[in-house]
Recover the amino acids of this structure.
């Protein structure tokens, strides 16, 4: 029998527990909030890079390194007004690449 390590189960469950939203751009943002609520912490800095594709010109994708106990993972979140408000409120350092 194959068993999945508890750390992997926790990471998968939290990062997949995203509320349904009418705006798909908000999905990963809500996933980030769910991870933070579940005890994950953002490891600064957050990296921002320009998004690919003409439809996303002028916007960025933000990459968050998350840690919890001995686990590390990353979640990428699209540039949205909600995310920018969160970054400002939390005074999170952004490293633009």
């Amino acid at each position: 029998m194959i068993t999945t390590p508890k750390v992997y189960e926790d990471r998968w469950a939290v990062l997949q527990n995203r509320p349904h939203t009418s705006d798909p751009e908000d999905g990963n943002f809500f996933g980030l909030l769910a991870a933070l609520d579940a005890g994950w912490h953002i490891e600064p800095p957050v990296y921002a890079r320009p998004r690919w594709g003409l439809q996303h010109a002028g916007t960025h994708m933000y990459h968050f390194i998350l840690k919890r106990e001995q686990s590390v993972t990353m979640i990428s979140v699209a540039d949205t007004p909600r995310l920018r408000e969160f970054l400002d409120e939390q005074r999170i350092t952004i490293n633009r690449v």
